[in-house]
Design brief:
This protein is of the alpha/beta class. It is built from 5 helices and 5 strands; from the N terminus they run H-E-E-H-E-H-E-H-E-H.
């Protein structure tokens, strides 16, 4: 498994999301060494939908017959997942998450010590790796924060 290769694919999706007028975040889900889903942030374009984070978009398109093997999947995302995405990743049973940049502003890591027991159990079964490529992903995060500060969206 080549984590940097899959992260580069997620970065390409983040750049595509940005070109389309959305936040620069991309995500890839793999099963073995095969990409089985990909997602890019789509909260602003074509219409506002605050649930269309890259990770959520990828989770939505995984083939239903693959979910029985979710413990063998990895999710690669350019940015540390937010609370919504974090919860959904745990509920879907993905056991390996690799993120490119930390997110002290909106990432879920700040709440890890306060998780309810159910989510503590799920978290104990999940391997979190990151930040893997801050040199490539921090600039994407900085542009995301600049858009937020400028009041671009309602997220």
């Amino acid at each position: 498994m080549d984590d940097e290769h899959f992260m580069d694919l997620a970065i390409q999706l983040a750049l595509l999301a940005e070109r389309e007028g959305n936040l620069p975040v991309g995500a890839i889900i793999t099963f073995g060494d095969k990409v089985v889903a990909e997602g890019k942030n789509a909260i602003w374009v074509p219409i506002y939908d605050g649930t269309r984070h890259a990770e959520m978009e990828a989770l939505r398109i995984v083939s239903p017959d693959l979910w029985q093997s979710s413990s063998e999947m990895s999710l690669y995302t350019t940015l540390e997942p937010c609370l919504m995405c974090f919860g959904s990743i745990l509920l879907h049973g993905i056991r390996r998450v690799v993120y490119g940049a930390s997110d002290n502003y909106g990432g879920a890591s700040s709440v890890l010590s306060n998780l309810p027991p159910f989510f503590q159990e799920k978290m104990a079964q999940t391997k979190w790796i990151g930040p893997l490529t801050p040199d490539k992903c921090d600039p994407l995060h900085e542009r995301l924060l600049a858009l937020e500060k400028a009041g671009k969206g309602n997220w």
